[in-house]
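Ticket #4471: structure output looks truncated?

Reporter: J.K.
Steps to reproduce: submitted the chain below (804 residues) through the standard prediction queue, then opened the result file.
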Amino acid sequence: MSFLYRFVCLCLCLTASAASAQVNYSAAPASSQIIRGTIFDADTDQPLPNATLQLEDALQVYGATSDRNGAFSFGRVPVGRYQLVARFLGYETQVITEILLESGKEQVIDVRLRAGAETLVETVVKGRRPDNTLSSVQTITPEQVLRFPATYLDPARLATAYAGVINTNDQANNLSVRGNAPSGLVWRLEGVEIVNPNHLSNAGTIGDRALPSGGGVNLLSAQLLSSTRFLSGAFTPEYGNTLGGVMDMRFREGNNQKHEYTAQVGLIGLDVAAEGPLNRRTGASYLVNLRYSFTGLLGLMGVSFGGEDIRFGDLSVNLALPTRRGKLTLFGVMGKSSNDFTAKADSLREEDKDRFSIRFDSWMSAGGLTYTQMLGGRWQWRVSAVASANKNDRDQYPGSLTGAMPVGNPFQYDRTTNARATLHNQFNYRLRDDRRLQLGLYLTRWYGSMGVWRDRAPLGFPRSGRVQEGILWSWLIQPYANYIWTPSEKLTLNVGVHGNLFTVNKNSVALEPRASVRWQPVERQAFTLAYGLHSQTQQPVTYLTEALRGSGESFRNLGVGLTRSHHLVLGHTFQIDESSSVRTEVYYQSLFNVPVSSRLVGGVPVGYSVLNLIDINELGERPEPLVNKGKGRNAGLELTYQKLLVKNYYLLVSGSLYDSRYQALDGVWRDTRFNGRHAINLTGGKEYVTQRNTYTRIWGFNGRVTQLGGFRDRPINLEASRQAGATVYAGSDFSVQLPDYFRADLRVYWKKNRARYSRTLSLDLMNVTGAKNQAYSYYDAVQRKVVQKFQLGLLPILNYRWEF
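Returned output as attached by the reporter:
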């Protein structure tokens, strides 16, 4: 270690101590609060004593040093925006920005530093957990979710502000990542894949049926979440069974020294959270959150919206229980949602849906435990046991059971159930300060079932009108290994392998190499290159699809294998200063073994591919015999400029040019449903702060403008639709280009911090200009014509939040 490096570190320690000595905590203003936390080794969870920390705002610097247990505290400091700089000899310096301190809640920050090249180049991050991923990753913090416009307090909706991420419908968080279908994105909780964790999973869908990977409202409230990692491609070995993206969510821990409460009410719902110590001596804590929809509360009072009753509620709990050598966490979330639509009288019917009464019910639950323990000075063991399940039921019947029945099968029943139970073991071993090894295994018991019934008469028991029905049990086994080497402060290498074994058939085995490199030739500039071979299972409906009775066909799709893809990403990052950067990425994804239809029409294969699926039952209602002979390709250029919230304003500008295509059995390359070609987002905000002796007040003004190339739709056969009384498409290809999409959102908030509590009043105006964006077209049997359905218009969301 050089003398110069030791000298600089000593000067930094003395500076921090001097700054700390200048702060008179006893004379802190009325609107002040405590910032404290613990600093750990990121690989072993070993506390780091005598680490130096600096807390900085626009006017002054506070200093602190961690004790022998790694704990640090800055005492009471004025409320406001801060950044935290953490340093420890032989470890990478880390700068955590966009910290919001409010008087109603202590700010507890666990910082994890990674041993590495001895360098004074600072790593600027928003989260508090280092990641092995070198490219195509974003960290979404709860503070950002509460600040950005039109997020519905959901990190998935915030992710659409970044390059390459597009929401397929305003009513849901159903994301298309880099041209992939939304089913390509997987949700993870505490490092383990779970089933779709969203309320109202039928929101915004064409057939009013469940989504495989999205919904109207995230089941996990932003009040419980820690930083969320969002990954969009060329994943490192610990991420498997995905092609399009990863939404990696984790619970935060409750305050282990003080009981605190949060209550908020708004258009989304009533949200109440409590946290505090279970045992102050051991540091055990609890965090619990209860939420119920605002529309549900109105429904309980007899208020309806156009004959529609929408309700959802959820309960979440997280318990952190430190042990002598590690930490045990127990967590769980459960929720239920429903959408009840009542048919209208004949004289009031304006569209096809008005003829039917429709009941949609959905529930979801997830829970489990994690245990982390140090094994000596260089080993860390982490085990997770997580189970999750959801069920969706939809009943439809005519509003009047007398008189002429509508054309087709007016009585419909749909049921889907998904469940996963996973045991995840992971070992982290630091061979040397510049070399780390990660070994892991996911062992998942996989369950899926479906039922689709269509009839012209009320369903009996046993049910008549059976179209599809089945149950599927299987195992999903995913071992992985990851080796990270930092030979110098300018170079980081990451190589590994991921395995995928799905026991549903012999065609579902894959061994996937992964590699990435980060090279920093000069300070503030870095190049990244990442490659990965990836694979993913299908939705249960895809495997369980079979031929219609009486159709003359006979098939089941249980032999469908994994969909696979090569993914290559080249990136460049220019760190302009400590709060702003420009990132450019070029990517290419080549998909193969894609399930496509083998059915022939007039001797020509139909152009059906699972790469265009949105609804779960889109295939179940119209069965297709599938073979793994399709292809796909996604290519694009992404540019992102981001200035974090420093000096009272922030800015995020992202743009992407991309092309998304697929190939069916006929060998013709076609546009996928999600090929909008371009996307531009501009998000920014400004805060105005007023400080008085008894309070601090903040006004925040935030805006977002989105401009997207229009998605694609299938042409509709009008005459065939009139005869069938329902939408009949002219083909399987998406040859109709929808107009470009434009939306502007505003968010204004007012925060006031008193001595013992803080309040936030906010107003979101979604689609403030009232732009009419086309979503899709369908045949309306009431109007007897093809009708265009539009996205949401102007939607105001008022919310009041109280922390104490």
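Triage note (M.O.): checked the attachment and the full token line is present. The chain has two domains: 3-129, 139-803.
Status: closed, working as intended.
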